[in-house]
Amino acid sequence: MWHAGSKYETFVWHCNNKFTKRKYCTTPTLKENAIKKAFVEAFNSIVDNKDEIIENYNLILDAITDDSAYVMQLEELDKQCEEINVLIERLISANAQTIIDKKDYDEKYNEYVKRHEKLQQQQEQVISKINKCAAKRLQITGFLKELQKHQNPLDQFDDMVWQAVINVVKVISEDKVLFIFRDGTELMRNIDCEVKSHAKKKCPSNSK
Fold first, then answer.
1. Do 103 and 114 fall within a single domain?
2. Fewest 10 Å CB contacts: which of 42, 63, 75, 165?
3. Do 68 and 127 sit in the same domain of this protein?
């Protein structure tokens, strides 16, 4: 916040490393009101085309969030893990009932364990993909639900709308920002920087 408590009070956004000596960031400082104004313009451009957007998602949402192939893959991995568990149990049981060469036993046991660990890693990767599909569907449906609420463009900035539809905002330059919405839509908008660039001061030389 700049000029806190005065009539010139205003909120600004800047990188956390903006004034860090060793990690000085050159990302421009932007006034919050300028970002809000740009967001309203970006969101309203989506509202203008909301019927087409919703119709398109009704056609493709199931396809772009389909996890059926991953589910089948996970089922196959589960089956293979269970088969290895059976092999390990049989090996342990055989070793308890008869004398098995320790070297042979260790080799087989370690082989089974390595195969099982590799399958578990593959399971984790597939589960992660399934979770990403679910998260993507949740984000898109939430975005569309919010979009359906708006029959008319926004007259002014709304915190609740921002939270419902925005995923990330990237500062591209001192006069451009990129809004990335929760459905993946990316919209570039011009913005009034209104803040003078801060030049990092050079430390005085101690040499004489």
1. yes
2. 63
3. yes
Query: Going by C-beta distance under 8 Å and a sequence separation of 6 or more, which residues neighbour residue 180?
Result: 166, 167, 168, 169, 170, 186
DSSP conformational letter for 3? S
Closest CA to 190 of 42, 12, 11: 42
Q: Are 62 and 88 found together in one domain?
A: yes
The one-character DSSP state at 16 is T
pTM: 0.73
Structural domain containing residue 130: 50-152
Token pair recorded at residue 96: 């308890």
Claim to verify: residue 30 and residue 114 sit in the same structural domain: no
CATH number at residue 91: 1.10.287
Residue 198 to residue 3: CA distance in whole angstroms: 17
Closest CA to 177 of 23, 42, 22: 42
Q: 58 near 140, Cβ under 8 Å?
A: no
Does residue 83 have a pLDDT over 90? yes
How many domains in the chain?
2
Q: Is 108 found in the same domain as 35? A: no
pLDDT tens-digit series, residues 146-204: 999 999 999 999 999 999 999 999 888 888 999 999 999 999 999 876 555 545 445 45
Q: Distance (Å, rounded) from C-alpha 82 to C-alpha 131?
A: 23
Pair 10, 61 in one domain? no
State the DSSP H helix or E strand holding residue 142, giving kind and residue range, or none if neither: helix 102-148
Q: How many CA atoms lie within 13 A of 207 on its CB side?
A: 0
